[in-house]
Amino acid sequence: MFVKICGLRDLPSARVAVDAGADAIGFVYHPASPRHVEPAQIRSIVDALMVDGRGDVPVETVLVVRGRPVEEVLRVAREGGVRTVQFHGGEPDADLQQAVDAGFTVMRALSLAEYVAGGSSSTVDARLLLDAPEPGQGRLMEVPDRALLPRTPWILAGGLGVGNVGAQIENLRPDGVDVSSGVESARGVKDHAKIRQFVANARA
Ligand SMILES: O=C(O)c1ccccc1N[C@@H]1O[C@H](COP(=O)(O)O)[C@@H](O)[C@H]1O
Fold this sequence. Notes:
By secondary structure, the chain is α/β, with parallel strands linked by helices. It has seven helices and ten strands. The strands form two sheets. It has an eight-stranded parallel β-barrel, surrounded by six helices.
């Protein structure tokens, strides 16, 4: 089970996620979000996580964007030193392809309705993440019929937390889970105990 802890803004929380065994950590570049981080802040965290101060970071680092021009996205991703870009705003295939061509791995976040309406038909090499229509709000994705869910690998986000991640995995059978609000004590403030417990519960 792939586990991503999203919305990180400080090094201690990032270290807790890595030490707990998360596969990926996410940084939100979206000025309207309480989790927004500037590229220099991302870079300082990524650099500090490098093993022995150099080489690879022992976790996938993800930049989360929503509706920003692709030139700005690529600049922030390069300055931040991340490996992956998560496009979370219905961005066109051309933007995702540009990120792939620039050497980033790519995730495409869709609501279930967008996915069902054909958002899966792209040829871009991107991992699929399904989320509630309004991201980062701690709201569960509604699934009226499990037959609508992908038959190829996908990641579940939206409203997950320590108390429900096990049941959601059991019920919806995603290949990965992604959380932000559910591991916070207040919006934008990560709770270290919840991060540890979330990773443990996702893997139980
Ligand atoms: O977290 C945000 O503020 C955010 C802003 C813009 C795009 C995506 C955002 N977060 C993504 O939402 C899910 C987590 O949602 P939840 O808080 O656990 O309900 C995750 O994919 C984040 O990357």
